[in-house]
Amino acid sequence: MSESLYPEKPVLIVDxxxxxxKSYEMAFLSSGVNNVIACADSREVEGILEHTEVELVLLDxxxxxxxxxxxxxxxxxxxxxxxxxxVTGVNEVDSAVECMRCxxxxxxxxxxxxxxxxxxxxxAMEFGELRRENQRLHKTLMNDSPLPPPAAFDPVITADNGMxxxxxYCEAIAGSRxxxxxxxxxxxxxxxxxxxxxxxxxxxxEFVGVNIAGFDDAMLSDTLFxxxxxxFTGAIENRNGMIEKASDGTLFLDEIGDMNIxxxxxxxxxxxxxxxxxxxxxxxxxxxxxxxxxxxxxLMELQKNSKFRKDLYYRIATHHIHIPPxxxxxxxxxxLVDHFLKAIAxxxxxxxxxxxxxxxxxxxxxxxxxxxxxLQCMMYDAVSNHQSKMLSMRVFLEHIKRNSGAxxxxxxxxxxxxxxxxxxxxxxxxxxxxxxxSLVREALRRADSNQSVAAxxxxxxxxxxxxxxxxxxxxxxx
Length: 478
Known about the structure:
Layout: E1 11-14, H1 18-30, E2 36-39, H2 45-51, E3 56-60, H3 68-78, E4 84-88, H4 93-102, E5 106-109, H5 114-141, H6 161-173, E6 180-183, H7 190-201, E7 207-211, H8 217-225, E8 226-227, E9 239-240, H9 242-245, E10 250-254, H10 261-273, E11 275-276, E12 285-286, E13 290-295, H11 299-304, H12 310-316, E14 319-322, H13 332-347, H14 358-364, H15 371-384, H16 394-403, H17 406-413, H18 432-446, H19 451-458, H20 462-471
Parallel strand pairs: 1-2, 1-3, 3-4, 4-5, 6-13, 6-14, 7-10, 10-13
Antiparallel strand pairs: 8-9, 11-12
């Protein structure tokens, strides 16, 4: 198996001293940077940049033919997206100021210390990456007529404008090597977005997903980092971890909100230094895997309770995608129902059933705590029990009754008393009639004034609901 290159695009080193070039290359290799182009003649730089995409240029200040400052100006003029670091043995404030004014991202004095040198190189590469990403985002946001979503988003069924905006954002950041944090409630499809980002990134490696909920520190370390033979009792052979498997690809860590503090420290080192140490080894390994993380937890709340490190949060939230719950995009429900009906019927070898239009109204009245995954389960249950031409609503009604407390949801979702006729407190309890009328009003609102569906939500007959509405003129507005 050939060694993977890091970074994906080479670092160009320009210095007229062969020994200096050799020392730079050795420093890079010792830190896992193995994709390097060495150039001893400053006149060759323009030709290299014309034919090769580079990640970074490391430029000596004093050279024959073309000086470092002259080359810097040419690179900034013709290749402004490439970060340039100047290296020199001359400790002069004026030359440093001039280089920074001309567009260099850093200025390093010789002799350089390897640890500090590599750290500044990686920061410069991150700067270049963020600059390119900013250009992509600007292009996306300025496009008044966005293109249709790429095929990578085909598994996400939606026509919601907010979701389409997320597609655009994902496409813009897909090429970045920075971490991506995906948040959203259980069942909204966080892994689908992680896979889409991987597919759009152009990474040659695999997409490797790991759900780390319930992992203790030892289990997580072994799963992610791997181990060497004899590292612990039962380690009878070497085992590569998921990070190794995701080399040149994407490592997706799901449910990071459940990660303990000890594991968070190791993850932070992996993200900051791109290094990890398999169990039983003394020397660290380099990782070039793109890391995407997801959680349904509120990480800000976990920070307040000292259950999630602040430094880790700000490291993983370089790119943040929040997927809205299904109840916030109810117009997608019909699209999802049609999609699941066809897919499940095909899977079960049945003819795709039809359904009454009231089914969509009923589903729109439900708050879907389990989001798209819950709707999919409901569709599986309904199609599996389907026998007639028309899909029965019984399965959906029973599911909704089992999973929702009508009165609790009314006050949870309507703002508690601001828009209702009364407030629930110990000093001012509503009468039975007031409570009943309020529930009827809420059912009609959720059913979009469809009395048949509202009756199903309330568990009464349409005739009983009609009689209740006739008795109270305030309900006639629905």
